[in-house]
Amino acid sequence: MTINVTDVDESDPAAQYTVSTLAGGTQGFQDGQGSAAQFDNPNGVAVDANGNVYVADSGNKRIRKIDPNGNVTTIAGTGAEGNNDGAAAQATFTFPDRLDYKDGNVYVSDTETIRVIDNSLNVTTLTGKISTRDDPTVFRDGTLAQARFRNNKGITIDAAGNIFVADQGNHRIRKIDNSGNVTTLAGSSQGNSDGMGTSARFRNPTGVAVDANGNVFVVDSSNDRIRKIDPSGNVTTFAGTSENFADGQGTSAAFNTPTGIAIDSDGNLYVTDTNNVAIRKIDPDGNVITIAGARGVGVGDKDGTGDVAQFDLASGIAVDANGVIYVADPRNHKIRKIVFND
Q1: Which helix (H) or strand (E) element contains residue 156?
Q2: What is the secondary structure of 69-136 as a DSSP string?
Q3: Is Cytoplasm set as a keyword in this record (predicted)?
Q4: What is the reported pLDDT for 7?
Q5: Domain locations along the chain
Q6: Cα–chain center distance at 13
Q7: Cα–Cα distance, 151 to 233 (Å, whole number)
Q8: How far is Cα 299 from Cα 294, in angstroms, rounded to an integer?
Q9: CA quadruple 294, 296, 298, 300: dihedral positive or negative?
């Protein structure tokens, strides 16, 4: 389809942001400093309180770490495909896609499982199981041992330690509570409707974020919307209406296959609007602006102010306590950094 994009003027808010390359730029596998490091289609990012950035290096089937000085190391995975737990250097992943960080642990969304890398660098499978011909189950609520997922994507953890997962293949948002129970928070079969809990419908949800009040925000990717699940389980559409590109208020804004989402301490949401090749910001009142990217006019690889910067298939996104934004730019094999120019 043709996407209409208005001319950018000097009042463009994206001009107030600067995009740079934190690490990577060449497809491959190599630890090292900044652009000397290599990634292979990195999809997920998370950041801890000390400014360390964790990367789901999907093509390399490894979890990488970028310290505040830009030095990249590998913290888990051998590069072989598998689901072996154990010491991080010997553990294997199937397709690590998204991740989050909480209290010294890295939580990895890995195909049909949730893996945990603890602060002693041991990898365990928290829940889920890779489906097989003998056990083809890809959806089940229950205990950690019983639960099943299908192509799970985004993952986030609230202040109480509850884990929320965008179960893309099952079109559901799942919750893993502190007692080890896995339940469906919202969604059932695919579709597009608001409503209470499992009466709501999503189509390929890929990202989740949770605010301080317990509201869960969902990237409903194939519906081109950002949905909100309040603490009572009621699902509403927070922003977006159809595939297009438009800034604006709530459902007057438009996205094109958004995939990732993060939230800052002020309740602002940041969304990777993947097929528009743009990074969008949504304030707590639902106002949508574009802070970086090419606004649906094409992919690229360019640093600079947000109004000229370019990405190629931006996916995972994270924001630190200082408001610095990190973006996984998989087809450029980079991790990008976005800062607001005070």
Answers
A1: strand 152-157
A2: T-EEEEEE--SSBS---EETTT--BS-EEEEEEETTEEEEEETTEEEEE-TTSEEEEEEE----SS--
A3: no
A4: 43
A5: 13-340
A6: 23
A7: 23
A8: 7
A9: positive
Tell me the one-letter amino acid at 123. Answer: V
Q: Is 10 left (phi over 0), alpha (psi -120 to 50) or beta?
A: alpha
pLDDT (mean) for 153-173: 98
The tokens describing 180, both together, are 């080890």
Positive or negative: CA dihedral 284, 289, 293, 295: positive
d(CA 106, CA 9): 41
Rg (CA), the chain: 19
**Domain 13-340 listed as CATH 2.120.10.30:** yes
pTM: 0.95
**Single-letter code of the amino acid located at 168:** Q
279: alpha, beta or left? (left if phi > 0; alpha if psi -120 to 50): beta
- Per the CB < 8 A criterion, the answer to whether 272 and 279 are in contact is yes
With a cut of 70, say whether residue 4 has pLDDT above it: no
- Helices and strands in the chain: count of H runs, count of E runs: 0, 30
Dist. CA 167–CA 206, nearest whole Å: 7
Q: How many Å apart are CA 211 and CA 270, to the nearest integer?
A: 12
Q: Which residue has the higher pLDDT, 133 or 65?
A: 65
Are 203 and 190 spatial neighbours (Cβ–Cβ below 8 Å)?
yes
